[in-house]
Amino acid sequence: MVMTANRKGYTLVELLMTIAIIGILAFVGPPLILNTVRHFILIRTKIQLQQEARAAMYLLTRNLRQAQSTSIQLDQYSTAQPLYSRIRFTKIQGTTVSYYQEGNTLVEIIGNSKTILTKNLRYLAFTFPRSDNMTLVSVSLTLEQGIYQGQTKALHMASEKIQVMN
Predict the structure, then answer these.
(1) Taking the alpha carbons of 69, 71, 77, 83 in that order, is the dihedral positive or negative?
(2) The dihedral sign for the CA sequence 71, 74, 75, 81
(3) Residue 159 CB-density burial (10 A; 0-12 exposed, 13-18 middle, 19+ buried)
(4) What does pTM read for this prediction?
(5) Among 19, 54, 99, 141, which lies 20 to 30 A Cα-Cα from 46?
(6) pLDDT tens for residues 83-111?
(7) Distance between CA 154 and CA 50 in Å, rounded?
(8) Closest by alpha carbon to 110, among 92, 79, 89?
């Protein structure tokens, strides 16, 4: 005659194994999730800064190519900004255009219309790379945005030798 045990419940070994597995998951899980979230925030911020920088550089380059080379002026908007952080010029059509840094914003003024291109500007500079050719302008901008725990992500973009066509 074979005796069958009527088991109800768990053994002590099974219970201890379950507690050990849950403990390991509780110890490893939160840092893994935190690192994944931080990586996601970093990548999202990088993509956003790249999009803003490309859009701003596209508008700036497009308008600068239509400038009258004799009308280009480089200076600073205020004493709190770096030298050569503002460019002003007149396009062939007679429209005056200005780009400058005001705090953390990149401002575009075309005629009487003021547009903020980005609010993440850290640094902006315009230079003439060659002193004998004032139809070449170099643009350098750095965008920066906070990501987490006081850290920031920065993106530097430079466009060398934008040829003024007129």
Answers:
(1) positive
(2) positive
(3) middle
(4) 0.76
(5) 99
(6) 888 999 999 888 999 999 988 899 999 98
(7) 10
(8) 89
